[in-house]
Structures are given as C-alpha cells and as structure tokens.
Amino acid sequence: MSGIASTPSTSIINKGGSADGSASRVPAASTYGKEVVGKRVKVWWPEDEEYYGGTITAFSGGGDGKHAILYDDGEEERVYLARETIQWEDSEFLPSAETSIEQKRGEAAHPVTQEDSVAKEVARKRRVVQDESESEDEINFSSATPVGVAPFPSFPFSLKELSGKRARLESPALSNGEGEDNDAESKGRRDGFARTAFAGLGLGNDSFAPSEPASAPRANESSSNSQIRGTPASISNSTVFNTPLSASSGRARLSLGSSGGGSVKRGRASWVEEEEDEVVAASHDRPDGVLEYGKHTHNGLKWLWDPNRRDAQGRSPQHPDFDRRTLQVPAAFLAKETPAMRQWWEFKAQHLDTILFFKVGKFYEIFHMDADVAVRELDLIYMKGEKAHSGFPEIAYGKFAPLLVEKGYRVARIEQVETPEAMKEHNRRCGPGAKRTVVARELCSVLSRGTRTFCYLDEATFEEGAGSDPTGAPLLIAIKEEKVEAEAGREGENEGRVAYGVCMVDPTTATFHLGQFEDGPQRWRLKTMLSQFSPAEVLLERGGACASLEQVVRLCAPGALVEMLRPGAEFWDADKAFKELKKGDYFPRGSKKKGKVKGDGEAEGESEEGEGLMNGCGRWPLTLQVVAAARRDKARLALCALGGVIWQLRRSLIDKDLLSMQSFYPYAPPDVVLRDAVAPMPEETEGLEPGTEEEDIFSCLGGDEALLFDMNESEEGLQRETLGESGRGGGVERKSDHGRSLVLDGTALTNLEIFRNSYDGTGKGTLWEHLNHCRTAFGARKLREMLCRPSQRPGVINARLDAVTELKDELSPEADEIRRLLRKMPDLERQLARHHALGSVHRAEDHPDSRAIMYELDKYNGRKINDFLSTLEGLKTASKVRTILFDSMDGCHSTLLQRLTKTFPDLGPRLVFFGEAFDPAQAKREGVITPKPGYDDEYDSAKERIEAVMAEMETYLKEQRQRLGSQEIKYWGNKDKDRFQLEVPEAILRRGQPADYEAKSSKKGCRRFHTPRIRELLEELGDAEASLSEAQRHEMRRLFEKFDQDRQLWTTAVNSLALLDVLLAFAEVSSGANYCRPTLVPYHADSTEDADGSNGAIPAPFLSIKGGRHPCLETRAALGDYIPNDIELGVATGQRERVMLLSGPNMGGKSTLLRQTCVLAILAQLGCYVPADECSLTPVDRIFTRVGASDRILQGQSTFFVELAETANILQHATSRSLVILDELGRGTSTFDGTAIAHAVVSFLVQRLQCRALFATHYHSLVEDWRGHVGVCFGHMACLVEPDEAEQKVTFLYRLADGPSPKSYGLNVARLAHLPSEVIDLAREKSETFEAFMTQQGQDGTGNKGKGTKVHPQLWLGAEIFALLTESPSSMTVDEKAKTARALWTEWNAQ
Question: How many CB atoms lie within 10 A of CB 574?
C-alpha cells in the first residue's frame, strides 16, 4: 500500500491523547461514534511504518464498538479507532483533551512525501506470522535501521499470478562492528524481523495463501547487462514461492517494516501494483539512509577498477598473464575493515568474477559490487550504510542462486564451518597468536550454467520433463583447437584446416563425451556438434583459440557462456591432465593393475613405475583408458579438453562427484566414419582386436581412422543398435553406432527446424515438438539422441517399426497402461547421479559442505529423503512396467520388444531390501533415516551395546534394592553424567550408608548417589551412544552408498524405460490419421551399380512418397486444409531421374515441399510411421540443405558467400546415397553468374554424385538447359492465374505438378506485400518490356525462332554481346546468332 501524503490540514493523534502520551486507555465508544462515519482517516501501520488512507463506512455502537474502514486499496477492516495512531484529514475531528489512547513504545509517525504515493493502492495484504529463526550477529546491524531482505521468490502464488511483479522488503543496515554482536537491541531487531518477516513468506513453519486471484501477468523485459546470458529459468508453479525477475516495468512491491525492538500491534505486507509505463525513481522507494546505486564505498575504490586494478600476483590488465578472476586488495585498506569484511575480501580477491553469497548466521549477505548485481538482477534493496549491502535468508538460496545463474552469473556459496561458541572454545584452548576474531568460513559451492548439479539446497530440483526444451540441460563443453600442419608438397590441401579436441559433460547426469577430429575452413563438424549438444557453457583456451572459433561458438550456441581459460594453469596440457587424473583419486584404485590399453611408447618389460605408462589405470573407464593411452598422438587434444573441464569442475567443487560416476563415452562427428569407411586400418590400431570396443573408441579420436566395427548386420550388432545402446548408458560402455546413422549436420538441423523454429527460436512447430510424446525426462533425452542420429540400417529401422506397430495395435491397452505409469515417474537418470554424490565418502567427510553449519538442515534432509523415496517409487513403477511387458509377450511378434523385455532387469529383490530398510513415514516425519534391525551392522552393533548397558543398569539397580532391602530405590536424572543417580529414601540410609556411595544431589526425604560401577556403566553407555550417534549421522549417506552400489542395475532399467518411452511416443505419433508404415529397401554390399543406376542387382537410390504431408504444418492446419503431394526420385517406378528441378510461383510451396521431403525421410529412418499414403525409399546416409538466405557479419561473410559455402559442403561430402535440397541457389549475385553457378551445380549433382536432389529455382533457362536429360525430372507448384484482370491475381494450389512453370509471378507477391501501387505498375511495365524483347528474340522466352533453333535467353544476350564486340551486329542472321551462342556454350562447358 502506498503512503498517503501528509498535508498541513491533517492532524496526528498519538496513542495517548496528551502530548506526552501519558493518559490511560478509554473505550472507543466514548471517543468516536457515528459522527465519524463517512469521514476520511489515515491509519498508521507500524510494521510498514506508513499511513494508509481510507473511509469510515460504519460503526457498531451497540456491538463491539469498532469502526469499519474501507481502505483505498479495496480492503475492509474493523478496528478500535481509539487504539490506533490515526490522522484525520479534517481538523474538526480532533479528539478532546480527555481522550485517552495508548502510545506505542518507540513509535513515531514516519515522514511521508507526496512522491511516495506514485504507486497504485494495495492489491492484497498478508498477515505476517512468527518464525523462530535466530541469526549470528557477527556483522553488527544498527538498531535504528528498518530491516529488509527482498524479494523472496518463495510466495505461495503461482507464476502467472506474479509475472511482471517484484517483491521488496526493507533491510537492516550494515555497520562496521567486529566479530559477535553484543548489542541486545540490535539483536532483538534482527531476530524480530526474522520472526515477523520470513515466516509468512513460506520461509518459516507457516505460510499464507492469497485471498483472491492476482492480476494478469506481464511479460518480463530482457536485461541490458553486457554479459552473455539468456532468459531466467522458468519457475514451476508450486505452493511455495514463485517470483519473476524485476526486469519488467510493470511490477508490484512488497514492503515490510521491522519490529522496532518493541511490541508490534500488527504486521502487514502489501502488494502494490505499479503501472507498466510508470518508472519510480530509486530515491522514492529508498528508505532514509539507504544510498542509491553508484554512491557506495566500493565505487570510489580506485584500485578496484581498471586501469588501476591488479590481479593477485600484482599484474596489470595489460600484462599477458593478467588473471581477471583475482584481485590484489591493498593491505592498508584491509587493516581498516572489520574482521568479517576482511574475510569477505579474502574470498573476493580469489573469486572476483563470482557473486559471493556470504553466510552470516541464518542469512546469506551480499556486499559491495555483488550487492549492486543483486539489487539490479534480483530486485533486492540496499541496506542502510555507506557499504553496498543486501541479503536474504538461508532457505531462499535455492531461489535466488538459480536466478543469477540463469542470467549468466557465477555464484559462490560461502558457509560458516563453526559457530561463535566453537570459535570461543577454540580461542580458549589456543595460544594468543592463534586466536580468531571471526568464525571460520569455507567456500562450499560455485555455480554456473555449465556446472549446476541441482542439489538438496534447490527447493525444486531441475526436471527436464516431457515436452520441455531438450537444450535446457546445463551442458559444459571444452574445446581445444590446433591448426593442422600441411605435409611437404601438399601445403594447399590443408589450408584453413584445424583439429579439435572436445570434452562434453552433463553435470546433472555426470555423463562425459570425449573426442578429437579435424575440420575444414567452414567448421561444419564443429557447428554440427554445437547444434546437436546446445551447450550452456563453453571453455576455450586463451590465446590458443583463434577468433573464428569464438565466432562459431557464439553463432551456433548464442545463449552459451564463453569463458577463456589460461593455458597450462587452467586449460591443462595432455600430460598434466593425465597426471591430475591419476592423483585425483577419482576412480577405484588399481595400483598394480594395468589397463587393457598400452600407453604411448610402452613396451614389454618396461618398468611399471615409468612416467606416462598405464599402470594404475586398470579400473578407469575404458574410454578414458584409450584416450590416456593415445594422449601424445591421436587423443592429445581430447585429453587437453578434458583437462579444462576437470579444472572447471574442481573449481566448482564437484569434480569427484561427477568423475567417480565413470560415465565416459567416445564422440566422433557423425560423418567421420562415413567418409573413412573404405580407409585402411591405421597402424596405431594393430594391437587392438578388430571389432572390439577399444578399437571402436579409438576410431573416435581422429579424422582418418577406419570404420572399426563390422558394417554387416550381425545379430549382436543389430540388437545393440536397435536397443539404442549408443553414446549414453549406465557405467558399462557399449559399441557406438557411428557410421550407421543418418547424418544431420548443424545446417540441416537448423534449416529443417528439428529442435528450434526459425521464427522465435523456440521448439514450437518443430519436429521435436511433434515427436516428443515421451512421459519421462530421460525418455525425452533418449529421443533427442535418436533424432540427432536416425539409423540408416533397414534391419534396425524395421525392428523399431515392428515394435511401433505392435504398440499402437495389438498392445494398445498395455501401451496406455504403461504411459499412465511412466507419467508419474521422476527423472531417475538424474536422481541416480544425485544419490551417487550423496553417498560419497568424500562429500561426507572431506568436502567443505560436510563442515558447513546449515540452519535448515532438517528441511534439506527432508528433501534428500523425499528424493530417495521418489526414486524408489519410480523404480517400483519400473518393475510394474516390466511385469506388463512380460505378461504381453505371448502374442507379441516384435523381436525388439522381446529383446527389451528379456534385458529388462528384475529389480524386485533389491527394492524389497531398500523398502524394508527403514520406515518411510517415520523418515519423512523426523527428517532422519532410522534403519530397521538387520540392515546396518554398525547401527545394530551400537544399539546392542546400549541395550546391553541398559540391561546392566537394571541388574545393578535390582542388586542395590536387594542390598539395602528396599524396593523404593530408583534411578533419577536424564542429563549426561548426572543420569542414573540412585535415589535412596533417607529412612533407609539411617540404617547405614554403603561406603561406595558418592553423594550427587538430594531432595526432601531422599538422597542421590553414584557408585564406581555406575560410573563405569555410564562411560560404556556414553561410548555406545556416541557410536550410535555417529552411525545415525552417517546412516543416510551409507544408505545412498548401498543404493549406488547397484547403480548398474538401476541404470539398465532406466535405459530400457527410456527406449520403451521413445517407442511409445512413436506409436502415439503413428496412430495419427493417414499415417503409413514406410518401406526401407536395403542396399546389397556385394553388388555393384552402373553409372546410370540401371543395374538390377542392387536397388539404386530412390525415394517414393505418395500423398506426403509435412507433419508439423499439418497439425496446425485446419482439418483437411493441408494439400498432400507426391514425390518420385530414382528408379523405383522405372524412372532414372534422381534430380528434380522444381519451379513455380513465389510463395507457391516450393520450400515447404523441399523440407517436407527431408522430414519424412528422417521420420522413416527413425522407425516411425510417416504422414503419407505410401512411402518407400532406400536409406539416406546424409541430408544436405541449402535453403534460406542470411549473412554472417561477425565472420565477414556475405549472404552469397554463405550460400556458396553451404553448397561447397554439399558437393564435397555428398554421396550417391545422400538426399540434397537446394532452394534458389544463385540469387545473391547477377543473373548471369547465378545461372551459371546453378547450372554447374546441377551438372555436378546429376553427372558426378547421382544423388537424390530437389533443386528449386526461378531460373527458367536452367530448366530448359536440362530438358530431356535422363537424370533430371521437372515439377512445379501449380497455381491458377486470372488473365482477365490487369493485376493477374494468382491462386496458389500448393500441389506439385509435372513439368516446369512458365513464370514465377513475382508481381503477385509484391501486391500481397503491399508495395506501393506506383512501384508495382512500373515493375509490370518493365516486365512486359523485357518479355516482349525476349519474345522478339525467341518464342515465349525460349529463343525458338526461324528454323526452330532452340537458344536460351542468356545465350541470346551473349551472342548479341559477341556481335557487338566483333562490330558486325547487323550482318548476323538469327541462325548465325544461334550458331555463335552454341559455340560460346561449347567453349563454356569445355572450360
């Protein structure tokens, strides 16, 4: 609620009537009654420290004596006016002297200006409830400062309700106090704020709900920060908090006041919705004493900014080794800082590029330049004081940290690792020189886009659910580039070629891919990799990467963060990376066991202690063994890239969590094996058994390796590929399917809109959206893998099609039941990685997080338990799916489903073990896992020892009762060493006190004793209880560790579910209307093909589609509106034409037909039904696309250059089995050059490659050039023209018709685009003039005249030019001109 301006006519009535407020309370009815109804009044809200205006609407004189006030924001409240601090807008309603109103302790009217009321009145108010949070006041806070920490993205509102709003809380100022805060008033203020402010925001034990729907959302505006960063991560709707960023101009603010150190009459929170076009100056919203941006201490520190800044080593920004991540802080400056701030600067000096969340008690505090970022990006507000300072409570970390990370910032979490009491104890024990003045803190986490693992601190774990953006995975990629040196005598061949080493890791699944390959000047392979993997963060070597590499990365991964690492120190060389791997203790130790693969230079008899050998690597993942063995040759760059990744993961403190998962797989560009399939086996692989996994991995490490697995469709290879065992799995690596898949390079993925559309860059209308009916997140990721690499093996494709047919027909009821089960399943693949980390001994004992003091530990433990229980439930669901599969196999004919069912592991026994290991309900309720007897030997042993001691205690008690002759003797006490005191009545002791009884305490009528035996038992009990406590402390970790020991079992089940989910998605798509099963005709490897494709021993490449429709466009068209088309390329129906020249009017559907053909081929080779009446084809090995027009300014490439570069890639890499589409090639230059290039490209496609191709063109002369050629057919997009009208309106039929089109009807498009009529008229006039000229020279623009000689228009013009040059234009007849044109044509072709 906005404050109401105080004017001279208003009068403030303090709660006391008299000036000093000393009068006693008087009933409201005796002071005000009906006479004030209808009057304007302003009521002081102490929690907000603001007056809110309203109108008194009623008075219940005969009831409770309250007045009803309708506030200007619409809220109505009934109050005792005499008990409120109020302002009347009319002085005639001042109370009399005898009016008695209680004055609030320490409260005074808050000065309010007219400018404070610029926002609209309150939309909602929220009561604030109590929270018991306490905080360490190591950094003192002024008692006169309003507390404020905001905004909390944790309100119980939905995202839609809060979109376009921001929350604001006023903050406590930071003083320069040192160490622990001893100011009671200051502490009371801060604790009071915690109790009142945070509880009602979903941060304490209670929460509140909105009383009415919030207003409609407004779209967020993008930030103008110079860093590369994408849009904020979307926050799922939940009952906890959802607050979008404040980049929007339409927003709301939440204002809460402090408790003031005294009693608070009521705490109120108000949402104030501001107009979207209304900009409120910072000073208007800023409390007194809070400085605006740019006015704080750090802004005046010259040593903090360039050019005065120095790194930790004292180097200036101009120094070649300058480290921008570090800072040299002057010692004189630090000497003036408080101990806590000195500690902050010590962290900041080593992490200058990182936002520090600095833990102080229960709060994460943010200082100096970091606070500037927090205020700007998170909509927090500054606290009072000269030092920029902001913050939020610990529980809100999981909301604020992701917001900054998604905006492109790096966030560090610095935790306290001791309490103030522990620091005092340390100082008491240590000498004077070792005493500390501030609690110890450690860096526990560094988050960035590419290193976020989504731990228990995140309130909502990252779920890439079905239908989500597949590129949303936080993928980290390191790229090492090196120029390829030309061989002697072949310098020109390697010009512009480079070699790349790449390492890719998904931190959410701990999956690594390693590879090394060469690339050409246009970097097609690199672009393809970036398009397929869509990284969130890319690591490059400073000085080692050329400018073009960074440009390619920013072009193909525009949303990725690009970070430059220093060579050697951060981006390691191969030898250092290998050494770090060996000493990093990432994998199970194998000190005397050597790996399967020999290292470079290793020979029989060499010492196992020799440097660089493979001893000690026997238990490394096989991919890593191969890479390490070839680290000085074929895998050197790949290992360098891995070194860069490990450095970044180590910096983020997650290197052991991820590498210990041992999920390493090889990567090779999809076209590497295709081009090298006929290459001889290199000498480097002679030691490897042909067809083995080691050899297969080795093939991924260079550009010239052979196809290292058998291309024949053996039963084992077919089963492996059919089951999708490529590139990702669960710890046991499998054969890759490189060379067996349809290659889709980056250009094809973009032009065919596989994952992102060309309109707004989202997944709407893409093939991914059309296919992604997966119910699980890991199924969606599997679908993405398969979509990037469709198969080209008919056996694999048909096996998938058989499974899809069964699932959509005979097994339809079972498929529906499985879909229902899968829909409830969590992201098991990512949860397995989280459980692995939580079960790690390293994280529990050595990681700084194990020492961090977390005040919300019960909640975090609850999240861990809920995650684990969710995983168990998901695996139980997997068992149910397995049961359904087994029960349905009797009538199933699909070999793939049978194989899938057979390999689906039985999870039952292990799930029973974990299900009975503890009580889930008790674990949820208490936040700890208490194992049942028999499931944890350490815990059981401690319990047995305690029970044994307790039994001894009872036996001893019976002995003492018998000894003293009284059953009234009992044990008393329950505190540590005071426990088990023998309470003996004094009447018994009068007969004599045993000598071994040592008095401890007494009460009237009784005395209490310890004995030596009791002390012995207490010591034993203490030891046993300590053992039990230690066992309980590690019980959760040990449970996760036991669970992780079965990771291979769980992963196998998840992989099976992922493939089944994909097949179910294909079945759902294939159930669409008029979808047909494609027919894949295999090639025969033992046959040869004639040059013209006429040999009947092998089917020449062909493609036949009847009634084909674009699946993505069809779903968006009205029923029956989409026009199907037929395509025939090849010899399947007796024709030999593999190249179609496609013409027709602009906007007639040519580009759609081209893309549609490619998309249907992809669908067919995925193993899915296609939207067509009939579809048959021989497998396509690669799809090439040359469509659209765009330049690349950053790379200095014009539109026409981009066209020709893409065309060159096609001509250099296409084979006879490829599918090529080219759309209007040559339009970026003159008509003559464009026609000439187009003709030459068609000639290459027809005569050299003999591949299937669709060539759309508006060069009608090009069509005439190839008329009658056996390898070319013609088609055009039909249309209807209204010849009677001058405008020649064109009606598009969107149907493919035979033969060429006579015209392109460009003027019709000009009319549709609303060009000015005078422009269109002039264009029509010029067009008619040109056509008349061409008709004069030939007939209908074909050049046919005289004796019917056929000459094309361009050649006629060439002949005319030749005649002019020879100065004999008038002496040449038409036939002579034609003869001259033919001579020019012959000479042209000869050249």
Answer: 24
A 10 A CB-CB count for 589 gives: 10
* DSSP at 300: G
Alpha-carbon torsion (1340, 1342, 1345, 1348), positive or negative: negative
Beta bridge partners of 411: 355, 447
The C-alpha atoms of residue 1054 and residue 879 are separated, in whole angstroms, by 11
**C-alpha pair distances (Å), 380 with each of 127, 383, 823, 839, 980:** 21, 9, 38, 36, 54
Alpha-carbon radius of gyration of the chain: 39
- DSSP, res 931: B
**pLDDT by residue (tens digit) across 1028-1058?**
888 888 888 889 999 999 999 999 999 999 9
DSSP H stretches of helix in 508-630: 524-533, 547-556, 574-583, 622-629
Which residues make Cβ contacts (< 8 Å) with residue 819, sequence separation at least 6? Answer: 775, 1064, 1068
Q: CA-to-CA distance for 837 and 1040, rounded, in angstroms?
A: 9
* Range 802-808 average pLDDT: 95
Evaluate if residue 172 carries a pLDDT over 60. no
Instruction: Write down the pLDDT at residue 279.
Output: 31
> Exposed (0-12), middle (13-18) or buried (19+): which is 1310, by Cβ within 10 Å?
middle
More confident residue, 1162 or 490: 1162
Enter the pTM of the model.
0.72
Nearest-angstrom CA–CA distance, 153 and 397: 10
- Phi and psi at 1360, nearest 5°, equal -60, -45
Q: Which region, left, alpha or beta, applies to residue 748 given φ > 0 means left and ψ of -120 to 50 means alpha?
A: alpha
Type of residue found at 61: G
Report pLDDT digits (tens) over 463-506.
443 333 444 578 999 999 998 876 655 555 567 789 999 999 99
Mean pLDDT in residue range 778-792:
92
Query: In angstroms, rounded to a whole number, what is the distance separating the alpha carbons of residues 1004 and 997?
Result: 18
The model's pLDDT over 516-531, given as tens digits with 9 standing for 90+, comes to 999 888 888 999 999 8
Closest CA to 608 of 629, 591, 621: 591
Q: Per the structure block, which two tokens stand in for 1380?
A: 């001259």
Measured CA distances, 6 to 50, 117, 119, 610 (Å): 11, 11, 16, 85
- The HSE-up count of residue 1371 (CA atoms within 13 Å, CB side) is 6
Q: d(Cα 702, Cα 230) in Å, to the nearest integer?
A: 34
Residues 4-60 pLDDT 10s: 333 333 333 433 333 333 333 333 334 678 888 888 888 888 777 788 888 888 887
Contacts of 1043 (CB under 8 A, 6+ apart): 835, 839, 868, 871, 914
800 contact partners, CB below 8 Å, separation of at least 6:
722, 791, 896, 1063, 1066, 1166, 1167, 1168
- C-alpha torsion angle, residues 772, 775, 777, 781 (rounded to 10): -40
Strands 561-565 and 498-506: unpaired
- Phi, psi (deg, nearest 5) at residue 1271: -95, 5
Is 228 within 8 Å of 408 (Cβ atoms)?
Answer: yes
CA distances from 582 to 619, 625, 650, 666, 773 (A): 11, 11, 15, 20, 43
Q: Phi then psi for 1231, rounded to 5 degrees?
A: -60, -40
Q: pLDDT tier at 655 (50, 70, 90 boundaries)?
A: very high
3-state secondary structure 868-891: HHHHHHHHHHHHHHHHHHHHCCCC
Judge whether 242 and 220 are in contact, CB under 8 Å.
no
Residue 691 burial class via C-beta count within 10 angstroms: exposed 0-12, middle 13-18, buried 19 and up: middle
> What's the token pair of residue 1073?
């209307």
Copy the structure tokens of residue 845: 């004992």
